[in-house]
Design brief:
With 433 residues, the protein is an alpha/beta fold. It has helices at 12-21, 33-40, 52-61, 71-74, 98-110, 127-140, 162-168, 178-191, 212-242, 247-254, 277-284, 289-313, 339-349, 363-368; strands at residues 2-6, 25-29, 65-68, 80-83, 88-89, 95-96, 115-119, 148-152, 171-175, 206-208, 320-324, 353-357, 382-385, 405-408, 422-425.
Length: 433
């Protein structure tokens, strides 16, 4: 097959490589010329994705994968087009379709008959049918369902382990017609491999959910569930810590029964998915009070953590506070919706002198994010661990000379190493800090 992949980001590029590795001819489209040049040279434009570099180089060397900024080189005569263009959402749950609208209009200008079009970007329910279908039809002059077919098939992978996740999880599809769904099933079965999953009630593979709307909702449901669950865990943690209870023992005990799956509490919920997709759900269902409350609870956790530090340390005005971790999760060089921003802002509001450390970012990168860089070994008065980087697990006060108070927002440090320091952990009573 000839396949076009629109947007060669942290999901789109691994997808393009996966498709090409199955022997298909793939052309990637991206508005960033530097990304295009890097891909065509066989070099990964961003670090951290397992096996991407070697797979990319192999596909480029075999002339099965190329990249361009020109839709006219990629879209015409393609058997399938897969779009993974970013969708942004504001704090009021309003999606910003700007980039996706632009990409869709460019796609429509060059769309030719007999093409399967699959959107993988997470969307509000109904977007595929009510927004993309008319836009594609108007821009191309073609009729969906006869001249071309449109489906929604959400990406369900995490950056850093995309190839592993593509094999592990069922590929969900939902078409606007039975024929579109059939073609999508054939397409994804030809470009993906699936691990055996005896834990599933039906075989791992391509699962047709019957409609684009069901497929759209499935992605929103699985991610919103996690945000709501974490919000509940955070409420439990706040109560437990204030009442002399170890929430981690409670969670372990509760989850020993197969009907309980309480997640871990923590200082923040970040990344492109969990803090974003509940807002997309709320856009369609503004009466979803549970979803809205959980989002508010999780968004408040950085301020809560700073309050914990203030409670144990005292007045933070003029105090040197190091925030450890800019990334939204450990081992991933990404700050999308990271709790670091709210944590730094809350500390600054209290008059603290705030600096930020992250082993994945150099001083210039931290400065571009708006932070004053901190280096382990420099004197501080207090610290907050925001990211669960492995490098932070073995920290001791010697790494933070002068530190008197520590809030471990991820419960990763060893309390035995912090004698003499007032240490607090979200979800633990002060006596266990």
């Amino acid at each position: 097959m000839r396949i076009a992949v629109v947007a060669l980001g942290k999901i789109g590029l691994p997808l393009a490589v996966q498709f090409a590795s199955k022997g298909h001819q793939v052309v990637g489209v991206d508005v960033n010329g530097a990304v295009v040049d890097s891909v065509n040279a066989g070099n990964e434009p961003f670090p951290g994705e397992a096996h991407l570099l070697e797979k990319l180089a192999e596909c480029v060397d075999a002339d099965r994968l190329s990249a361009t900024t020109d839709y006219g080189e990629a879209i015409p005569e393609a058997d399938a087009v897969v779009l993974v263009v970013p969708l942004f959402v504001d704090d009021d749950a309003r999606p910003d379709f700007g980039w996706m609208d632009s990409a869709t209009r460019e796609l429509a200008r060059h769309l030719t008959p007999n093409t399967l079009v699959s959107y993988e970007t997470t969307l509000p329910v109904g977007t595929t049918r009510t927004r993309w279908k008319p836009m594609l039809e108007e821009g191309s002059g073609l009729k969906e369902g006869s001249d071309f077919h449109l489906v929604f098939s959400p990406e369900r992978v995490l950056t850093g382990r995309v190839f592993e996740d593509l094999r592990k999880y069922p590929k969900l599809i939902g078409g606007l017609s039975a024929e579109g769904a059939r073609l999508a099933k054939e397409f994804y079965e030809a470009v993906l491999d699936f691990d055996a999953r005896p834990d599933l009630q039906r075989p791992n593979g391509v699962w047709d959910l019957g409609s684009a709307e069901a497929s759209e909702m499935a992605k929103l449901a699985e991610t919103t569930y996690r945000d709501v669950n974490i919000g509940l865990a955070n409420e439990f943690a706040r109560f437990a810590g204030d009442n002399g209870i170890d929430i981690y023992q409670v969670i372990e005990a509760s989850n020993s029964q197969p009907y309980s799956h309480i997640h871990r509490p923590g200082i923040a919920v970040g990344g492109h998915c969990i803090p974003v997709y509940p807002r997309l759900y709320l856009w369609n269902d503004p009466q979803a009070d549970i979803v809205r409350t959980a989002r508010a609870v999780n968004a408040d956790m950085p301020t809560y953590a700073v309050g914990m530090l203030e409670g144990v340390h005292g007045d933070l005005s003029g105090q040197r506070v190091a925030v450890l971790g800019a990334a939204y999760r450990g081992g991933v060089k990404e700050t999308a919706f990271s709790g670091v921003f709210a944590t730094v802002a809350a500390l600054a509001e209290r008059g603290a002198q705030v600096s930020v450390h992250d082993p994945l970012y150099d001083d210039e990168e931290l400065s571009k994010l708006g932070f004053t860089p901190y280096h382990l070994g420099e004197s501080v008065d207090a610290s907050i661990i925001q990211t669960d980087h492995a490098e932070y697990r073995d920290l001791t006060p010697a790494n933070l000379p002068g530190v008197r108070s520590l809030v471990d927002g991820r419960n990763i440090t060893d309390p035995s190493r912090w004698e003499g320091v007032r240490r607090r952990v979200i979800g633990l009573p002060e006596s266990q800090g």
